[in-house]
Input
Amino acid sequence: MEKDLILETKQLTKSFLGFIAVNNVDLHVQRGNIHALIGPNGAGKTTCFNLLTKFLKPTSGKIYFNGENITQTKPAQIARKGIIRSFQISAVFPELTVLENVRIGFQRTHTNTYNFLRSDSSLNRLNNRCRELLAEVDLLEFENHITADLPYGRKRALEIATTLAMEPELMLLDEPTQGMGLEDVERTTQLIKKVSTGRTILMVEHNMNVISSIADCITVLARGAVLAEGTYAEVSTNPAVMEAYMGTSEGVLEGAH
Ligand SMILES: Nc1ncnc2c1ncn2[C@@H]1O[C@H](COP(=O)(O)OP(=O)(O)OP(=O)(O)O)[C@@H](O)[C@H]1O
Ligand SMILES: [Mg+2]
Output
């Protein structure tokens, strides 16, 4: 069967003053998948994300989104095409309410929205759409809470909601469960699974329980290069992958099963 790739990179490379952080990376992200990018610290995962969102310019190589070469596309256009990276908590306004933060997410891509918000009915429509998103991430009961007062895990859920507000076709999540306790990790894992319906997710994640339970495909990076790409069962038994993880803080690749 022909693969339906939403995102593909060819020989993607980034060097910093001669240090090669991302080295000839070929990524193949299938539409509808939860695709995980894993690897030891310093493997080049975040740099890859920065290249995909055009925060950084590649040294060489190409990036294709829905078959279109977007290597030279500007960051703002990337977002408009539907590649959205989740915003870190620092980008959520702590003094605003949960609902207001989601509304700003809408404004980021629908720059004209506020121009036709002259009537109460269009404002209500927008608020209703925001509430639908809050319900999707289980935050509806917090809609009028000040964001700063939310527990950490709920703030991360809000971060996902503000990303969803930008209507991503491809959503990039960099360590969505980082710093969370067990309960929040479990809730966030299920949340990612839920919001992946009808979307594609590319995520960097260190927690192997998360990876093994929801990732359809995994790319393993080490020292900037792809070591393996495949299902959890495939990559976790790959000798090169096991070798790369030896002696790191991640330990062995042990999943939930
Ligand atoms: N702007 C930069 N200038 C110089 N070197 C950089 C820069 N950004 C990243 N690097 C280097 O590139 C390598 C890859 O870094 P990157 O942050 O992409 O790794 P990572 O896989 O995200 O690691 P972690 O798991 O710790 O988040 C590291 O050695 C890092 O020091
Ligand atoms: Mg990183």
The chain has a mean pLDDT of 89.
